[in-house]
Amino acid sequence: MIFNKYIVATLCLLLFLPLKINAQDATITAMPLSEQQTPQNSQSVGSDSIPSVADGSSLDKIPDIRTQFERQRSLYTKPVRRPESLLRFVQKKELTLSDEMMDLINRSFDTSQYFPGYITFKDTVIVNPLFLPLVAKGGLLPAKLEFYNLDSLMPRTAYDNLYQGETIFADRQVLHKIRHSAYADVRRNHPNLFKYTERDLPALFQPGELKIELVETNPIEVKPDLINANELDANVIKFIPERQYWQSAFESAIQFSQSYVSPNWHKGGSGNLNLFMKNHLKYNYNKDKVQLTNEIESKVNFFNAPKDTLRDHKIGDDVLRLHSNLGYRAFNKWYYTLDGEFRTQLFKSFKENTNNLQSAFLAPLQLNLGLGMKYDLNKTFSDKNKNIKLSINMAPISYTFKYSTRDDIDFGRHGFEKKPETDKYNRSLSKFGSTIKTDMTINFNRSVSWQSRILYSTSYDRVEAEFENTLVMAISRFFSTRLYLYVRYDDGATKKEDFDSYFQLNELISFGFNYKW
Fold this sequence. Notes:
single chain, mainly beta, 12-stranded antiparallel β-barrel, 6 helices
């Protein structure tokens, strides 16, 4: 009880005595009543006490503004940096992919390989779809959902796996799979990064209708729900790339055909092996009314000669041809043209079982010049792989010159004329006449095409004509089968004892490598 009395007395003393708090050392002391200030004598504002101005003698004790600023400055403390643990609540999440995925994207999407080196697109940026704003497209289920393979119910044969070709779009399919994998990775691990879906976008940005065009430096801000088509069109600058007036095309083929006949075959005969090589390069120019066509073509056909005791091979067709045609448009598809063609052969050719030379390089050579008109047609169909290209050049005035750098070839085979006084052939031949040339290419689809060429030349006392046809059936991008037929007529050539006709024929069926661009 005594202890409780002391506690009560102490609490009463503390309640009735005013407290004085020292702000510097945070101690609490009792203030005597004599030192207490009444509201009439002063005004207390926190720790900064301002004396009352009721008494004129206290005016000198009012602190000036500088003193007040210095006192406030002494109480200032430097802000403390927030800890990293709190910053994670305000930081914006960024899209991150794995190092393996980024390396695969960087190696696969090389924008410098999108276009050939001779094509320039100024101020054009190739945008990678992976780095465009994310839009949820759905498609959680695969596009082709199958619970079982219907092909497994079909009967199997030994020829099913004979050929498994690769499409020409294999590289693009790989890039599409990479994009889809990256998109699926974000959808699976970072779904919060998707802001819109396809349904939120206006019709202008719906799939199949989006057109990427260059805009000004400060384009308008497009909001999906407040888009103004007229305002957007006004700020779009349509980019038209520079036109390429020079166009090139190239085709190369190495074809093989082989047959074998055993020695005891009931009908006799012998086997043979054919090798056919062709290279054809075009480099054309077309601007306004001017058109220039340039062609370089080489063809050679080797085949084995079992009946030749001196050589094991022969040459069936050997041509090196350079052709140029300069045209100026007259009307529609008709052009005034100046046509020139140079041709010769590359290899030596001998008569069977002899050393008699039939032809060689520049022996002979032929130059043809013609002045006339040309009809040029290039028709396409709804199927982009189906088209027809036709060119007919008619030269009512033409000049043909033949010459041989050697004097030991068979001149009669090539239509040279004899000298009446010596009964020997001239090494040169000149004649004027008319010439008609026709070139046609029909692409039935991506795999089958027909190439045809017709040449008719006459000096009004002699006719020379050629009809060349090639049917190409592509098996894949690099392999094809060719049916080749070459018919030639020359009534100025010397007839043979074993073949009394001016017609000459060369046909070939082959299979092998074929490449073109």
